[in-house]
Design brief:
Elements (H helix, E strand, L loop, with lengths): L2 H8 L15 H14 L2 H10 L8 H8 L5 H6 L1 H17 L2 H12 L5 H16 L8 H15 L20 H24 L6 H19 L19 H14 L5 H5 L8 E6 L18 H13 L9 E6 L1 H12 L14 H16 L4 H17 L15 H14 L3 H17 L2 H14 L3 H29 L2 H7 L13 H4 L2 H11 L14 H17 L11 H36 L12 E2 L2 E2 L5 H35 L1
Antiparallel strand pairs: 1-2, 3-4
Helix pairs in contact: 2-3, 3-6, 4-6, 4-7, 6-8, 7-8, 7-9, 7-14, 8-10, 9-11, 10-11, 10-12, 11-15, 15-16, 15-17, 16-17, 16-18, 17-19, 18-19, 20-21, 20-24, 21-25, 25-27, 26-27
């Protein structure tokens, strides 16, 4: 049962009236109320406060200070009747006390951040007091929202569990997440009457100011905690919505009441992915009455200013307006909810092209991909995938790469592919990585391939790029075959002639960017062995196998030398094949020697069952010790990998010799 539900159920617990003679003396009455609170006597407390209807509002501040600390989760669980009586007493104070005093008294109790039960229970009381203030509430609403928002920010972010698939449903069972699921709905309920009053346009300066303050705090909830929650929902699966999803829907609906155009909020400054909106400085400014800036050490002056804020004397429209920057994380979470989860679509215009929106969302995608929370990484990949899936292949021209946000996003995807501990996210990153190449025109695709091959040192990622090169070459050769079928051999003859190539600005002609010199540029980057024959071939195995398979495909498929691969064979033999053969012989001999040493050590071992541990360091980091059996498995696996490389290399050399002999 949620904390909010417990509080609601406790409210049903009612005490019967207890006839107690009224106490006229104020001090004696306060003493008896204090005794009932100490004894946690709900019936006596109800009689003194609620039945006798304390007439003197001057006592409410002191009584609020006395009663509010009783609103703890412990009392809620063990003494629900006493908890409910205290709540009813504070509700009475908020309705019949002086509004400005009750606002400050309640905020004083909330800002201790001690208990969520106290926070949730006092919100309706604070709401009552604020609604009794004049329509121009001045800074009292801002002061309240700042205090309440700080409580939500004070809840720590959940830990980064490696939850995959159905396991993600367990996220809401975490204690920290449950706190968010209790506190955030209560906070949103608190805002509702103020949201209804201002509207997205807001008539008058006072309403505009309240609208900006409300919007600011709604956006802060997107940054913390919604970015950490799983907000997915697939209506086609007919599965129930999670509590996190319901909170997200409520929050976006609240935002629609204070923001008329989400596009304008998110994409006002596409150059750097940041946007600003009009806000207010809530601290360290003189009020409209001319009160001087207060010093933290002067408690009396500080209290006086707080009272002035709550009174409404310092009106929002008279304060200095500033431009507050929308945080990247808030904007990123909103971009995901609106564009991927389709929330708040009535505030999202349908007039912009997909490539434009793709570029506008790149900074937000980067912010999400580089966040430590796996839920944020998922949102970033989903945001990119959403727009890439909407575009046709080759839809993005080469100028896309001039966008300063493109390469940071590509590098962030690579980091996800390499280091993310969640297998599902690694594979999703790989799919987005491949799809992005497919959406670029041929010139842009070639340029990005060169960039990744030249800058990325990870063999697996470079191997993926080599596989994409092979796919593009295959598509180009198939296109030539179709042209030959319909137009005879004109296309082939045109490609063979040295000076009759198509115009260079034909960016979607794959033969221009994956044949001949352009292909040679890519191959030179792919065949580069960092240390020649001494390179760690096991570490480079993914790239080496991908490159050998590409070359084997070329010599088998391109007998007519459209790609000019046959002209490159002397270069490949000199710079790649020779060093690779030597390196394979050296690596195989080294691992066989290590394997023999391990076998000899096992033979000399005096007692059966005794295990010898070994340690291995990777990039300077020592891995957990390996047993002898594990070391043997590593040696056998390495030798198997070398055998595969030698087989493919031998087959490639055999095909080349056969083709040469036939020629």
């Amino acid at each position: 049962m949620s904390l909010l539900q417990q509080i609601q159920d406790a409210a049903c617990e009612m005490e019967t009236d207890l006839a107690i003679p009224p106490v006229e003396d104020k001090e004696e009455l306060l003493g008896r109320i204090a005794e009932s609170v100490t004894a946690k006597d709900s019936r006596t407390l109800q009689a003194y406060v609620l039945e006798q209807r304390l007439p003197d509002p001057e006592q409410f501040w002191e009584l609020t200070t006395l009663l509010a600390p009783c609103l703890t989760t412990e009392n809620l669980e063990e003494m629900p009747r006493f908890f409910t009586t205290v709540r009813r007493c504070l509700t009475h104070f908020s309705r019949h006390g002086k509004p400005k005093e009750m606002v400050l008294a309640l905020l004083e109790q909330i800002e201790g951040f001690q208990d969520d039960a106290l926070f949730i229970t006092l919100l309706p009381c604070l709401q009552n007091a604020l609604l009794q203030l004049p329509v121009k509430r001045g800074r009292s609403l801002e002061l309240a929202l700042d205090t309440l928002g700080d409580h939500v920010k004070g809840i720590p972010a959940p830990q980064n569990w490696n939850l995959e698939g159905e396991e993600t449903k367990l996220l809401e069972s975490d204690e920290t997440v449950r706190r968010f699921l209790n506190v955030v709905p209560a906070f949103l309920d608190f805002m509702q009457p103020f949201l209804k009053g201002v509207g997205p346009e807001g008539d008058g300066k006072g309403w505009q100011w309240e609208r900006r303050v409300l919007r600011k705090h709604l956006l802060q909830l997107l940054e913390h905690p919604l970015v950490f929650l799983d907000l997915r929902y697939n209506s086609k699966e007919n599965s129930p919505k999670t509590y996190s999803r319901e909170i997200a829907e409520t929050l976006v609906q609240c935002l629609t009441q204070v923001e008329g155009n989400f596009y304008g909020l998110l994409v006002q400054n596409p150059a750097d992915g940041k946007t600003t909106y009009s806000g207010l400085k809530g601290k360290d400014k003189k009020s409209s009455s001319g009160k001087a800036e207060v010093e933290d050490t002067d408690m009396e002056a500080e209290n006086a200013e707080n009272e002035l804020k709550a009174s409404g004397a310092a009106q929002g429209e008279d304060s200095e307006e500033v431009q507050e920057e929308l945080s990247q994380l808030s904007g990123a979470t909103l971009a995901y909810l609106v564009q991927v989860e389709w929330l708040g679509q009535e505030r999202w215009p349908k007039t912009h092209s997909v490539p434009h929106l793709f570029h506008a969302n790149l900074p937000y995608a980067h912010t999400l991909l580089t966040n430590v929370a796996h839920t944020a990484v998922y949102k970033g990949l989903s945001l990119l995938s959403f727009y890439l899936d909407l575009m046709e292949d080759l839809a993005l021209d080469v100028d896309t790469l001039d966008d300063d946000n493109v390469m940071p996003v590509v590098n962030a995807i690579i980091i996800v592919m390499r280091f993310c501990p969640i297998r599902q996210l690694r594979f999703s990153g790989l799919e987005v990585f491949k799809i992005f190449f497919a959406k670029l025109d041929c010139k842009g695709c070639h340029q990005l391939m060169r960039s990744v091959l030249a800058s990325c040192e990870h063999a697996g990622v470079r191997g993926v790029v080599v596989g994409l090169i092979k796919n593009n070459i295959d598509t180009a050769l198939r296109t030539l075959d179709v042209e030959k079928t319909h137009c005879g051999n004109k296309a082939g003859a045109a490609l063979k002639s040295s000076g009759e190539e198509k115009p260079v600005d034909d960016r979607n002609n794959r033969s221009l960017y994956f044949f001949k010199d352009k292909l040679k540029q890519l191959l030179q980057l792919a065949i580069k062995l960092p240390e020649g024959a001494a390179t760690d071939l096991l570490e480079q195995s993914d790239l080496i196998m991908a490159t050998l398979n590409l070359l084997r495909y070329l010599v088998l498929r391109d007998s007519d030398n459209h790609t000019a691969v046959w002209d490159m064979l002397p270069l490949l033999e000199k710079e790649y094949f020779s060093a690779l053969r030597t390196g394979l012989d050296m690596s195989e001999g080294h691992y066989k020697l290590e394997l023999d040493n391990l076998n000899k050590q096992a033979a000399r071992r005096p007692r059966k069952g005794e295990d010898i541990a070994a340690t291995v360091s990777v990039a300077g980091t020592q891995l957990p010790p390996m047993t002898e059996d594990q070391r043997l498995n590593v040696m056998h696996s390495a030798l198997t990998t070398f055998d595969m490389m030698k087989c493919v290399l031998a087959r490639l050399s055999e095909i080349i010799d056969q083709k040469k002999n036939k020629a």
